[in-house]
Amino acid sequence: MLDETIYKVAIAAFMHDIGKFAKRAGFNVSPEFLNNNADLYQPYIKEQNRHTHKHVVYTAAFIDHIEKLLPKQFNKGEWGLGDSFMNLAAGHHKPQTPMQWLIALADRVSSGFDRNEFENYNHEIGVKDFKKTRLFAIFESLSPDEVPKGDNSEEYFFRYPLRELSPESIFPVKRDDYQLLDSNEQTKEYSDLFFNFVVSLEKLSHKNNIPLWFEHFDSLFMIYASYIPSATVGRIIPDSSLYDHSKMTAALASALYLYHSGTDTLNTEKIKAYQDKKFLIVNGNFYGIQNFIFSEGGSTGKAAAKLLRGRSFAVSLLSELAADMLCRELGLTPASVILNAAGKFTIIAPNLQETKDKILAVEKEINDWLIRMYHGEASFGFSSNEASCDDFTINRFDELWENLSRISERRKYRKIDIGKHGGAVADYLDQFNNDMNKKLCPFCGRRPSSPDAENDRLLGDEKSACNICRDHIYIGTNLVKARRLAVTTLSADIHGDKLKEPIFGSYQVSLDISGKLTELSRDGTLLKYWDISGSVNGTISKEVTAKFINGYVPKYTDKDETEDMLERLLHGSKSEKKKNELFDDIKDGNPKTLHHIAKMALNRIQNSELETKRKYTGIEALGVMKSDIDNLGLLFACGIKQNNLSKMATLSRQTNHYFSIYLPYVLSIKEEFRDIYTVFAGGDDLFLIGPWNRIIDFASDINQSFREYVCDNSHVSISTGICINKPDEPVRTVSEKAEYAVKKSKANRRDSITIFDEAIKWKEFGELRGIKSVIESWLSKSYINNAMLFRMNHFLNMAKQEKALLAGKRAIDFDEMECLKWKSMFKYNLARNIGKGLKGDEKEKAIREVEKAADWLINYGGAMKIPIWQIIYNQR
Fold first, then answer.
1. Are 484 and 529 a contacting pair, CB within 8 Å?
2. What is the DSSP-derived secondary structure letter of residue 153?
3. What Å distances lie between residue 75 and 30, 200, 228, CA to CA?
4. Whole-angstrom Cα distance, residue 89 to residue 97?
5. Are 385 and 400 in contact (CB under 8 A)?
6. Is the Cβ–Cβ distance between 639 and 142 less than 8 Å?
7. Which of 802, 536, 535, 470 is nearest to 674 (CA)?
C-alpha cells in the first residue's frame, strides 16, 4: 500500500533546490510573489537588513506556477501528513515545523555540514557569479596520496559544459576554452536548459501514478541537472551536481521521516540531534556474476549469443529489482537507492530494528529463489552500517564509507546459508517428477525442461528448455529490438510475451508490452517502465525512466548486402542454407553471430593479381577485451577531497556513465568499431567481444578517451586484458583468459594492457602501435618480406630470453647462452634479406631503416610480439 507521506517527503526533498535552476535560468516570477513569500521562506539577517537564499522562493514559485505539469496531488491539502507540499519543499532554509526540519537537516547532511555550520549555512558567504559558475570535475583532483587542492578555483582547470546529459556532454572541457563564451552566452545556456526541462516535464508520463511519475522525474532531472553545480556560494569548490545533491537529500529525508515516525520522536529537538544513529546504510551485492553470465554445460551451442545477452542483462535486472524489493518492504521510495551499478547497490534506510529484520527477510526470500532457480550459482548479500548525522560530515565521511566497505567485504565470505543450502540440492530429482523421459534443459544442462517452455518459438530447433534459459533467450532476443521494458505485478493483464519464471516470484517483466499501459498504470500493477535503448543515437529518453543497462549489439544492416560484405560473411562456406539464413538475418536486422563477427577481422586484398587466387587475408578470430579502473576503491575511500555524500554520488554516477552511456554510443557511431559486442559495461569495468584486430584498435581508443574523461589525471587509470580466440571456444573459457590477462596488467603496476600474454604500459602500447605502422610500410615498400617478419619473431624471443638472463643474479649455463647470439644473427639476416629487389642507394636506405628494429628489440623485448604478431595474423 502506497504511503503518501513518504512520497510527499521524498519528492519535496528532491525538489527543494529546484529554485536554484529556475533562478539561474531567469524563471519569470513576479516581484509580488517574491516579496509576499520572502518572510515565509527566506532567512533574514537583521544586521544587514536583507533576506538570503532567494532560490527557496523560486522553488515555491516553480511548484506554484507549473502546477498543471505536476501530479494534481501536489497541490491538494489532504495529500499526506503535515505541511503543504510547497512549504515542505521551500522551507528548508527557514524551517518552522518538524516536517520542514527533516528536509533542512537532510540538505545539510547531504553537503557534509556539521551542526556548528548551521548558522553559516544561512549566511551566504562570498557569493560568486552563480550564472557563470560551471561544475568542476572531481576526477581532476582525485588523489590518494597528494596534498589536496585548496578552495581557490584558479587551481582547477576543467569544467563541465552546461548541457543536458548526452554521450558527448559527459566529457569535461578545459576552463580556458569554456571561458571563451561571453557572459550573455553563459547565461543563455541556463535559460535554454531550463526551458527544455519544462517542455520535457510537460510530456512526462504517468502523472496518475505517483511512484511511476517520481521515478520518471528522477530520470528527467538527471538529464537536465547532472552538470548544474549544486552550490556556488561560500568557501566550497562546486564539484557536486544539483541532481546528486537533490537525490541524496531525498534519500536522507526519507530515512529521517521513517526513523522519527518509528521511534515516536517526530519533533524538532530530536530531529536536530546530530549524534543519534538514525541511519542504516545498506549495501547489496550480487555474488557470482561471472559464473552467472558465462554459465555453460548444455548439450547445444545454439542461441549462445542470445543467452549471453540475456544473462548479462539479467544481472542488472536482478540488481535493480532486488533493490526495489527491499525499498518496498522498508516503505522507501526508489530515490532511497543512492547507488546502483554493476551488480551493487546502496540504500539509505532508517535505523530501526524493524528495518534490520526486514533486510534479513528480503535477503532470505531473494536467495531462496536464487537457490531454487540457479542451484547456488548466484546469490545476493546484504550488509549494513549504522550512521549518525555526524558521521556524514566532511571530517568523518571517509571513515564511514570505509567501514561500510569493510563490512561488505566480510559479507562476501558468507555468500549463502551453508547450514540451509549446503550439500546436494535436496529436491533436485523431484523436479523431474519421476518422469524418466523428462529431459535436461539442452541450454544449461542443469535444470529440467519445462512444459511451459515446450515448443516455444524462441527455442528454434531445440523445442524444449527450462523456464530460466527460455527467459534468458527471450530477453536476449528482444533486447536488440525493444526500446521499452515494463515491470509489473503478477496480476497485471499483459498482452504479449513475458517471463515464464517471474523474478523473485514477485516481478513480471515484458519487453513486448502494449495496449494497456494507461490502465496498468492507473490500477497500480505497472511498477516500472524503463527506456532501455540507451544513448546509441546520441539522445536519451525523457518521457519515461532511462536505464543504461543495455549495451551495444552489432546487427545486420543494409550495408551487409553489398557484394564485398556477403563474400566476407560467407567466407569459407558454400552452404545454400547458410546463405539463405544470412539473407533472412539481414532482412530482419538480427544481431550478428559471433562467427560472423569473427569474419569481420578478415582484410580485403587490394592487389588485383593476388585477388584472383584469394580475396581475403587474416584470421577469423574474436578478440575478447576486459578492462576496469585501477584502485577505484582506494580513490573512493581516500582520494576525494572534502568528501561528502553528494560528492561521492556525483563521482560514482560519472564513473558509471563513461561505461554505460559513452561506450555503447561510440561503438554505434564509429564504423570501424560497429562489429564490437558489449557483454557488459557499467560501474567501473567492461567486457567486449569483437573482431580481434578491431578490439586491439578499440583498446587504444578507449584508453585515450578515458584519459580525457578523467582530466588526464595520472592517479586514475584503467588496466586491460585482451585474448584472441576462435569463435567456437566456450564463453567461460575466453572469459577466464581475459580475466587472467587483466590480472597480468594489474601485476604490471597497473595502467597497463596485456596482449599476446605481454603486459606493457599504455605509453609503450602507443609507441608499439607506431612501430607497427612503420613495419607495415616496410612490407609495402618491399624493404622486408614475410620471411624476415617471421625471423624477427624468432629474434624477439631470443631478445626476451637475453633480457631475463642478464637480469638474473646467478651463474649462466653454457646452453643458455644461445640467446645472446640474436644481434649477430639479426645483422647477418639484415645484410642478406633486406630489400632483395632493391639496388644501390635504395637498398642502403632500406638497410638503415630496418636496422631500427634491433633497438626496438632491445628496448621492448618480448613486447615486440604485439606489433609483429598483429601483422602476421592480418596477413595470414
1. yes
2. G
3. 20, 20, 27
4. 12
5. yes
6. yes
7. 536
* CA-closest candidate to residue 271, choices 354, 384, 350: 350
Q: Are 230 and 17 in contact (CB under 8 A)?
A: yes
Q: Packing angle between helix 822-833 and helix 786-807, nearest 10 degrees?
A: 160
Residue pair 629/710 in contact (Cβ under 8 Å)? The answer is: no
- Taking the complete model, does pTM exceed 0.85, yes or no? yes
**Which H or E element spans position 623?**
strand 622-629
| Whether the Cβ atoms of residue 107 and residue 677 lie closer than 8 Å to each other | no
Question: What is the rounded CA–CA span in Å between residue 157 and residue 175?
Answer: 5
User: In 179-241, which residue ranges form alpha helices assigned H by DSSP?
Assistant: 183-202, 210-225
* Number of Cβ atoms within 10 Å of the Cβ of 371: 18
Gap between the Cα atoms of 69 and 203, Å rounded = 8
**C-alpha cell belonging to residue 704:** 585515450
Question: Beta-carbon neighbour count of residue 804 at 10 Å?
Answer: 13
Calpha distance 42→639 (Å, rounded): 36
Place of cell 546487427: 555
Distance CA 55, CA 131 (A): 13
- The pLDDT value recorded for residue 117 is 63
Cβ 598 vs Cβ 621: under 8 Å = yes
Longest dimension (CA), the chain: 98
Neighbours of 422 (CB within 10 A): 9
The answer to whether 34 and 22 have CB atoms below 8 angstroms apart is no
Q: Is residue 228 a contact partner of residue 192, using CB atoms and an 8 Å limit? A: no
Grid cell locating 446: 542443469
Residue whose cell numbers read 528480503: 362
Q: Give the angle subtended at the CA of 788 by the CAs of 786 and 793, to the nearest 5°.
A: 95
Q: How far apart are CA 389 and CA 108, in angstroms?
A: 9
Length of the chain as a residue count: 876
| Paired residues of 173 in beta bridges | 159
pLDDT at 125: 47
pLDDT-flagged residues of the chain (< 70): 1-2, 115-128, 146-152, 178-181, 234-235, 299-300, 434-437, 514-515, 536, 574, 607-614, 809, 811
Residue with cell 509576499: 36
- Beta strands 545-546 and 526-531 are parallel
Matching residue, cell 588496466: 719
| AA letter at 130 | F
The span from the CA of 647 to the CA of 136, in Å, is 11
Rounded distance between C-alpha atoms, residue 764 and residue 746, angstroms: 15
Torsion angle of alpha carbons 443, 447, 453, 459, nearest 10°? 0
Q: What sign results for the dihedral spanned by CA atoms 749, 752, 755, 759?
A: negative
pLDDT at position 118, please?
Answer: 54
Q: What angle do CA 841, 847, 851 make, to 5 degrees?
A: 145
Please give the Cα distance from 272 to 103 (Å, whole number).
Answer: 11
Q: How far apart are CA 150 and CA 229, in angstroms?
A: 18
Pairing of strands 752-755, 718-725: parallel
